């Protein structure tokens, strides 16, 4: 009996750890995310399959009663995902319980798990955020064990087995929650580290803008996206930036770059499409934009920089100007991969014409 119980617990844990791995893969690798409908459905299928598999490795008791760790899955869902996912999974789990036999135990199991998930969801909403994650999980587990005790008393009546069953499940489920909490926290930590490394790889350390690698990736994504009917590329270059470095030093030059980047983020329509692609060179990608709007963006940026008095740590603010080259594909998708080269030619023309101006191809 003890060996069978130990193997059942081990099987339950293995199933839940495997489920945690697959669910972790569903989480988008971005800082702020919401699950899409498709991912919510996959999540529900994984968790329901998990509870069903757990029931196959349950400990059998007299009169068709089965004890296992399926409610641990419900606890984790209620805490980490939310009431909707937990209630949906609990309902499907209760229905699947009938596959092991249509009898009073199955009906009572369905009622029990629905009452349990509703109570757990209410408790999570009340205390989540006020206490540590592990403490809240232990409270939810204690409530689950007490409800299980009531459930067994209703079914078996006052009997000695009613005492040791909740004690056994309380110990096992507590250990399971501690282990799963550690695994989930480790997975979340690894995801955050991976996200941080990715941001470092695609972010310019000085200005905080996306870098040339991010520019290449975004350009490729827009070219491949069939919804991109038109694409415009703006290249912005700081006029006489070498002279600024030679006159004031590279530290002041870096401050100028940061001021330009800040001005562009406030002025450009979508700061996520602004990139620093070289020393004093920036790019903006405008998907599905007209030539007129692109021209307005370029002129607005040029004027904003020209009028800005930059306080960069000198006795007096300094003033700089920029030149802008613009190229659009005009609906010709074959030209999209060449937009940077075309915008660069327009920028060269702006430099040749005396700088501090916008040239559009």
Model description:
Helix content is 64%, strand content 9%. Strand 1 (59-60) and strand 2 form a beta hairpin. It folds into 2 domains: 2-201, Arp2/3 complex 21 kDa subunit ARPC3, CATH 1.10.1760.20; 212-360, Alpha-Beta Plaits (2-Layer Sandwich). It is of the alpha+beta class.
Oligomer: single chain
Query: What is the name of the CATH architecture of the largest domain?
Result: Orthogonal Bundle
CATH topology description of the largest domain: Arp2/3 complex 21 kDa subunit ARPC3
Number of helices: 12
If you compute it from the alpha carbons, what radius of gyration comes out, rounded to the nearest whole angstrom?
31 Å
Distance between the termini: 82 Å
SS elements, strand count = 7
Strand content of the residues, in percent? 5-15%
CATH class of the largest domain: Mainly Alpha
Largest sheet, spatial ordering of strands: 4-5-3-6-7
Order of helices and strands: HHEEHHHHHHEHHEEHEHE
Largest sheet: 5 strands, mixed
Number of domain units:
2
Shape, principal axes of CA atoms: elongated
Helix content: 55-70%
In short:
With 361 residues, the chain is an alpha+beta fold.
List keywords for this structure.
361 residues; alpha+beta; Arp2/3 complex 21 kDa subunit ARPC3; Alpha-Beta Plaits; 2 domains; five-stranded mixed sheet; two-stranded antiparallel sheet; 12 helices
């Amino acid at each position: 009996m003890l060996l069978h119980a130990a193997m059942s617990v081990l099987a339950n844990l293995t199933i839940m750890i495997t489920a945690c791995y697959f669910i972790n893969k569903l989480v988008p690798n971005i800082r702020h995310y919401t699950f899409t409908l498709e991912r919510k459905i996959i999540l529900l299928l994984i968790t329901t399959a998990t509870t069903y598999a757990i029931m196959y490795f349950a400990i059998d008791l007299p009169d068709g009663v089965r004890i296992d760790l399926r409610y641990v899955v419900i606890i984790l869902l209620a805490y980490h995902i939310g009431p909707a996912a937990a209630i949906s999974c609990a309902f499907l789990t209760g229905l699947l319980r009938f596959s092991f036999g249509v009898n009073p135990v199955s009906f009572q199991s369905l009622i029990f798990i629905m009452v349990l998930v509703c109570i757990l969801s209410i408790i999570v909403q009340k205390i989540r955020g006020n206490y540590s994650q592990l403490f809240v999980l232990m409270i939810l587990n204690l409530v689950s064990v007490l409800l299980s005790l009531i459930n067994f008393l209703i079914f078996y009546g006052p009997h000695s087995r009613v005492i040791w069953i909740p004690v056994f499940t309380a110990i096992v489920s507590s250990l399971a929650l501690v282990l799963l909490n550690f695994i989930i926290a480790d997975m979340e930590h690894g995801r955050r580290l991976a996200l941080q490394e990715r941001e470092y790889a695609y972010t310019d350390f000085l200005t905080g803008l996306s870098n040339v690698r991010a520019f290449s990736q975004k350009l490729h994504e827009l070219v491949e996206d069939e919804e991109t009917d038109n694409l415009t590329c703006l290249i912005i270059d700081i006029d006489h930036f070498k002279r600024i470095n030679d006159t004031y030093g590279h530290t002041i030059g870096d401050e100028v770059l940061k001021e330009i980047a800040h001005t562009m983020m406030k002025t450009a329509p979508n700061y996520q499409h602004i990139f620093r692609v070289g020393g004093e060179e920036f790019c903006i990608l405008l998907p599905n934009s007209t030539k007129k709007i692109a021209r307005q963006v370029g002129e607005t940026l040029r004027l904003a920089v020209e009028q800005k008095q930059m306080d960069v740590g000198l006795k007096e603010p300094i003033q700089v100007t920029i030149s802008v080259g613009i190229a659009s594909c005009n609906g010709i998708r074959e030209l999209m991969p060449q937009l940077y080269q075309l915008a660069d030619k327009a920028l060269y023309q702006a430099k040749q014409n005396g700088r501090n101006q916008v040239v559009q191809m």
